[in-house]
Amino acid sequence: MKTKVNPLKLIETRFEADNMKEGRYVKRYFFANGLGASVACHSGTYGGDSGCFEVAVLQYPIGTTAENTCEIIYDQPINEHLGIVDVAGWLDFFEVADILQKIRNYNTGEYSYDK
To answer: I want to staple 89 with a disulfide (CB 3.0 to 4.6 A). Which of 36, 54, 70, 85 is the partner?
Structure first.
């Protein structure tokens, strides 16, 4: 019996260098399904003053440089699936990891991966 292998993978992660000043944490994740996430913790995020994280769902066109073409998405099926209108705030590390996994595994119908 063959085991189905999920071809989705993390394309890249990036810290935003300018945001690493003064205790600001901003990291972007990009997945092979054309989706990604911006994870942030700073005084301008929901829960940032309490050390909690905020997550925004990103989307980028397959075959492009994700960092340059990504946009925060609203009113898309993935947002409804996650229960996120614009951003999810007041999250701990484990909640962030759960959301990242759901974004990674979400079926967009488009994938970019090496076989």
So the answer is: 54
